[in-house]
Amino acid sequence: MNEHRIHHHPVLTVPDRQMVPFTWNGEPLQGYAGEPIASALVANGVQIFGHHPKDGSPQGIFCANGQCSQCLVMADGRPVKACMTPLCAGMQVESVEGLPRLPADDAPASRQPIDTVDIEVLIIGAGPAGLSAAIELGKCHVPTLLIDDKDRLGGKLVLQTHKFFGSVADSHAGTRGYRIGELLAEEVGALPSVQIWLNTTAVGVFADQVVGVVTGNRYRLIRPRKLMIATGAREKMLSFPGNTLPGVYGAGAFQTLVNRDLVRSSNRVLIVGGGNVGLIAGYHAIQAGIEVAALIEALPEVGGYRVHADKLHRLGVPIFTRHTIVAAQGDQRVESATIARLDEHWQVVPGTHRNYAVDTVLVAVGLSEVNEFAIKARQFGMEVFTAGDAREIAEASAAMFAGRIEGFKIARALGVDLGEMPADWEAKAAILKSKPGKTVSECPPEAETGVFPVFHCTQEVPCNPCTSVCPVEAIHTEGDLLTGLPYRDDAKTCTGCLACAAVCPGLAITIVDYRKDADHPLVSLPYEVWRERVETGKLVTVTDREGQVLGNFPVVRVRSKKDYPGTLLVQVQLDKAIAKRAAGIRLQEPAIEPSFLYENAPLPDEAMVCRCERVTAGEIRAAIRAGVRDINQLKAMTRAGMGACGAKTCRPMIWRIFQEEGIDLGEVTDRVDRPLFVEVPMGTLAGVEGGECQ
Questions:
Q1: pLDDT for the residue 686
Q2: Torsion angle of alpha carbons 62, 67, 70, 72, nearest 10°?
Q3: How far is CA 388 from the centre of its chain?
Q4: Other CB atoms within 10 A of residue 377 CB
């Protein structure tokens, strides 16, 4: 098991945890008490959790977020989601082979009453938006119940090891995501009017304006005066042959394993999608000691922040735009993946297929709002507020500020005398969720004396921490705007304190010091990966911003700043001709190359759309071409969307196939949603006790 655990990390502290025994199909194993069963299994090298009853296809985790139902196992005789169920000492875990075999129902059941809790405000989701709203309400002494289906507060913040962009004052810019989660949790925990229920899943909203929630095995009803939805987003899936093989993960699932649960789930990965999620996941993989074979993006340019892409370039990760994944191959799990170039019409270019030997494919092709609770609540006449990704997909920095705004609005709607909302709040929220702006050419300063920062960020994004840490106030942004590019005021003398380089979320600031040797200045390069590679005296490969190698140079010294743990400043002495171009250190050498040209691509109709019911893209296309324009009819004909996940994964892909077939989406009737949005055992709804770790 040790080879699949992360025992040392360049940024995260590995906690002390209690090891407990459990069994997998009768085999004795060990895992950490309270960690998800899925993480314990992957840590023991188990990727296959069972086989589908329809075609015997191997099943494993995909979302690790309770959304897709792909990770079903039997735990002590009960079918459970392995990614959401905590491991208990002595637990007997079994794979699901065919249909689950349920235990005989011959024992008398003990029942507990189903309580109804009245509360002023219910907030569903304790991520950045929900926490920020709860803090605002707590400051106003509004009785608030904050629930989340995880074992800790923070939502996706828990998974983020990188420093955040945005505003220092409004969204903790320059602080690592998981630390922001801790800060918000500490703040909300100190507010007496805010109750917190963790490991609590909202499962449905009902016509009598109550919300059903499940904590462990206990079902309760919540009747709020105001409802706040901060449920975040779920990952979109791509349709390609092999897309349900174990080892095809959503990027969030991968981050959950490596950053939250400290499980090294992979050896070599291919990343599909060049938005911020995919770019950041690639960086997290390298921090966890996992090779990144390549990152591919179908668009002509990556959609995420340029500085995130530059970090991967500098580390040695190839990024291919105008490329798509053709297929993932493997017997029982991913063994390789094939990519190919796309032409201007989004068609695969013949003869451009390349096959990479990888054990993991990370799918990061966008997010869908988890908004079904808000939609249903509005249908039933409830007063609903939304923030974060449940309302609009954006960065977590924007979600924090949006949550703050909604918390203010809720308090005012409840009669709290707060006056008018500050006039600049809405404008700030719009800036924080703005897309990347213009990109300019890199223009290093002309000076070759003294010491000063070189800014390698060339794209306008909302970010300003470097302006806040300079002790001589020498750094500003163009127009004093949050999205303005940084520059140095030449009238003020830089002290060479290194703070701006240490705080920069994009690792896009270097410090060049000519004071001791004008011909061979000392250059400080920010670095957050494998520390043993940059010890004093070791040769490191220095690159420019775009990853072009400038040469190999010995490390003179490694420094760090107390306020910015995890970021090292690696100092090397360079010729003045290249000193201002130096931006990073390459790790992946030589570059990972594809193993062979892949000629015979499988037909796209073989791709799986509904993973629960194993319905292919070809079956969906055939029904559409036969005239089906109602997703309910499509469901009856093919069973697509009838599975345990409630169409959370396949629904967006079905809409996309309608679009690809040239159908006007206005002609398509959407499916009717189920009353419950999350699977719940019948015994839980009936108030039957038991089923939790004792």
A1: 83
A2: 130
A3: 14
A4: 21
Q: Which of 382, 381, 434 is nearest to 410 (CA)?
A: 382
| Residue pLDDT, tens place only, 130-145 | 999 999 999 999 999 9
Q: Please report the pLDDT score of residue 130 as a whole number.
A: 98
> Which residue's entry shows tokens 């990888």?
358
Q: What is the pLDDT of residue 187?
A: 97
Q: 201 pairs with which residues across the strands?
A: 214
Q: Is the pLDDT of residue 658 over 60?
A: yes
Element (H, E) at 169: helix 168-171
Question: Widest CA span of the chain, in angstroms?
Answer: 85
* Spatial separation of the C-alpha atoms in residues 186 and 172, rounded to whole Å: 14
- Cβ-defined contacts of 274-277 (< 8 Å, 24+): 274/299, 274/301, 274/302, 274/303, 274/304, 274/309, 274/319, 274/321, 275/302, 275/303, 275/304, 275/364, 275/365, 275/366, 276/303, 276/304, 276/305, 276/308, 276/395, 277/251, 277/252, 277/304, 277/364, 277/367
pLDDT digits (tens, 9 = 90+) for 28-47: 999 999 999 999 999 999 99
H, E, C per residue of 188-223: HHCCCCEEEECCEEEEEECCCCCEEEEECCEEEEEE
- Nearby residues of 455 by Cβ (< 8 Å), 6 or more positions away: 485, 486, 487, 488, 508, 509
Report whether pLDDT(346) > 60.
yes
DSSP class of residue 370? -
Tens-place pLDDT, residues 239-266: 999 999 999 999 999 999 999 999 999 9
Q: What is the DSSP string of 643-681?
A: STTTTTTHHHHHHHHHHHTT--GGGPBPPPPPSBSS---
Q: Please report the beta strands in 457-563, taking only residues with DSSP state E, as ranges in sequence order.
A: 475-477, 486-488, 509-513, 522-527, 539-543, 549-560
Enumerate domains of the chain plus CATH numbers.
2-100+237-363 (3.50.50.60), 116-233+369-432 (3.50.50.60), 451-586 (no CATH), 607-694 (1.10.10)
- Conformation bin of residue 508: beta by default, left when phi > 0, alpha when psi is -120 to 50: alpha
Q: What is the pTM of this model?
A: 0.93
Residue 454 to residue 42: CA distance in whole angstroms: 43
Decide if pLDDT at 489 tops 70: yes
Q: Is 285 left (phi over 0), alpha (psi -120 to 50) or beta?
A: alpha
Residue whose tokens read 């000492």 = 89
Q: For 443-458, write each residue's pLDDT tens digit.
A: 889 999 999 999 999 9
Q: Is the pLDDT of residue 593 over 80?
A: no
- The confidence score (pLDDT) of residue 568 equals 97
Continuous H helices in 256-305: 276-287
H-helix segments, 455-570: 465-469, 499-503
Question: Hey, what's the torsion of the CAs at 343, 345, 348, 354, to 10 degrees?
Answer: 30
Contact 95, 41 (CB under 8 A): no
